[in-house]
Amino acid sequence: METNRRLWLKKIGIGVAGIGLTNFNSFASPLVSENLINSFENNNKLIFLRSNENPYGPSPLARKSFLDNANISNRYNWDIADQLISDLAKRNSVKDENILLGAGSTEILDLVAKFVTLEKGNYVIADPSYEYWTVTLDNLGLTKNKVPLTTDKKINLQAMLEAVNQDTKLVYICNPNNPTGTICEREALVEFVTKISQNTIVLIDEAYLEFTKQQSISNIVNENKNIIITKTFSKIYGLAGARIGYAIAHKTIIDNLGNLQSNTNNSVSVLSKLAAIASLKDYKFVSNCYLLNENVKQYTISKLKKLNCECISSNTNFIYFSLSYYKKDYFKQLENNNTEGGRIYEEQGKWTRITVGKMDEMKKFIKALE
Questions:
Q1: What is the pTM (predicted TM-score) of this model?
Q2: pLDDT per residue over 238-251, tens digit each?
Q3: Residues 6+ apart with CB under 8 A from 127
């Protein structure tokens, strides 16, 4: 069911104020400006295929949680944090002491950056990969050591291993990788992580792992003090705007990261935590999102190939493809059809990325290209 953003904003405005009234038009304006509401309505005219958001979320249980609990936003959320941490620990087969909450996995990545830059050196990352967060590493003094992908756009674990030296403070693996959508096989990844982590910290970003059938490597954190796994509710759970993610690591690492967080485990709002708790219970929603994404993704890939766009097999909710043989001005076509897509990630081959939206959105996307 499509969310009516005008109605949603008015409900939130009234809910936060604690007013139980049905005449939204009379009371919404002082609480939520018409300009803000109109900006949301204007955005609704656009097709957002830029940021790998879940077009179906949040889940029904999460939406109900937001509305049911808006009136307790005046309270701090320590007890709720404990409950969510417990739920996440059980989900990932670890202990509560192995979990740290953050305002999206971005906050966790920032904490890792601060931690590893306590001593200067370098870090190793695939190229291209998800590197927006690495500006913190750069600004805090680490030298970036980029390792090219393989010809089929996979992370080259052997090359990354060879790039590590005595000054390396961190090795980062986004698995599945953003923007390419490729994945490291679990057995090979565990072998790599076990070897590398003997001398340096390894950060595994599993933001998109729920779009695969592959098991997390979270079960090895208790055996190894140099492994950090980040996960998020932004993708398959559809809570990107709610900003909630978490780290899984050995207690020693969690304690160190927590010491760099001004209010440990409490940068996430009470509503976001409750929505996350609800989302973890909505197995049907997650399963449906997975199946819908697979169906629409395969449709989109087949159509892109007919437009002479080479596509990389994707393990995510986005597609990495080449514009080398596309005959039109791709970005102009998107602009003319009110569609927001990605950018060029690799000039050689003109590789770009598009988020997998709903089927009707992807049909409009393909029509725009045609």
A1: 0.86
A2: 999 999 999 999 99
A3: 146, 147, 148, 149
